[in-house]
Design brief:
The chain has a domain at 96-217. The chain is built from one helix and 16 strands. It has one helix at residues 147-153; strands at residues 7-14, 19-27, 34-39, 44-50, 55-64, 67-74, 76-82, 87-91, 99-106, 112-119, 125-133, 138-144, 161-166, 169-174, 179-184, 189-194. The strands form four sheets. Strands 1-2-3-4 form a four-stranded antiparallel sheet, with no helix packed on it. Strands 5-6-7-8 form a four-stranded antiparallel sheet, with no helix packed on it. Strand 2 (19-27) and strand 3 form a beta hairpin. This is F-box/kelch-repeat protein. It comes from Triticum turgidum subsp. durum.
Length: 217
């Protein structure tokens, strides 16, 4: 790596080619640096375009269809990095109103989801799921978490939650939960599952990709 500062790192794995790429974006303290990519196939770092964003939500990113998506506040919307071309693009998709927190989740067949809480007060909150309409560049709501699941998942209104996706399945958990809440986007069904890997790993210090141990029917 040419710039030795602490960087925001993303791991992108290609299982078909049995290779991976490490994408180093901006400095963790906000300094703008050129994007660098390590390609395991050639065992080499390459320097690419500087990311044109000033206020990056670095923890909220997803890798989907050979593209890295990140939430940004300046400019508002998403930044998309085309790994093959080595270029950044701004997607002016406005976030839903009253969004308290949100996560980008990559789905199957090039689908990109936004998962987050909506609400103005602690007693008026709900969890919702949106899908990015790439043609119109807008977030379209596709589901709401039923209140009974929301209350069971987050016992306190300020409690933090985590989520990850595999194919078109989205799994939710909170820090004190011993189970995960699963949403099947295709079947539009909610269910509880035992255990969740997000409690066992601190995402600030290691790469991991949560996966389900068995098929979900």
């Amino acid at each position: 790596m040419h710039h030795n500062q602490q960087r925001q790192l993303v791991l992108a794995v290609d299982r078909k080619l049995r290779s991976f790429k490490v994408i180093a974006t901006s400095d963790v303290y906000g300094e703008t640096l050129p994007t660098e990519v390590y390609d395991s196939k050639v065992d080499r770092w390459s320097v690419h375009q500087m990311m044109p964003a000033e206020n990056l939500c670095s923890s909220k990113m997803a890798f989907c269809d050979s593209r890295l998506y990140l939430e940004t506040l300046s400019p508002l919307g998403l930044m998309m990095y085309r790994v093959d071309a080595g270029k950044w693009e701004h997607i002016p998709a406005k976030f839903p109103r009253s969004l308290l927190d949100g996560y980008l989740v990559a789905g199957a067949r090039k689908r990109l989801f936004l998962v987050g809480r909506i609400g103005l007060y602690s007693t008026l909150q709900s969890m919702r799921i949106w899908e990015l309409d790439h043609g119109r560049t807008v977030w379209v709501e596709i589901s709401r978490m039923p209140p009974k699941y929301f209350r069971a998942l987050l016992r306190l209104s300020a409690e933090r939650f985590e989520c990850f996706g595999q194919d078109n399945l989205i799994c939710f958990t909170s820090w004190n939960q011993g189970r995960g809440l699963l949403y099947d986007v295709d079947k539009k069904a909610w269910s509880w599952i035992a255990g969740c890997a997000s409690q066992l790993c601190n995402t600030q210090f290691c790469f991991y990709e949560p996966r389900f141990d068995t098929s979900i029917y």
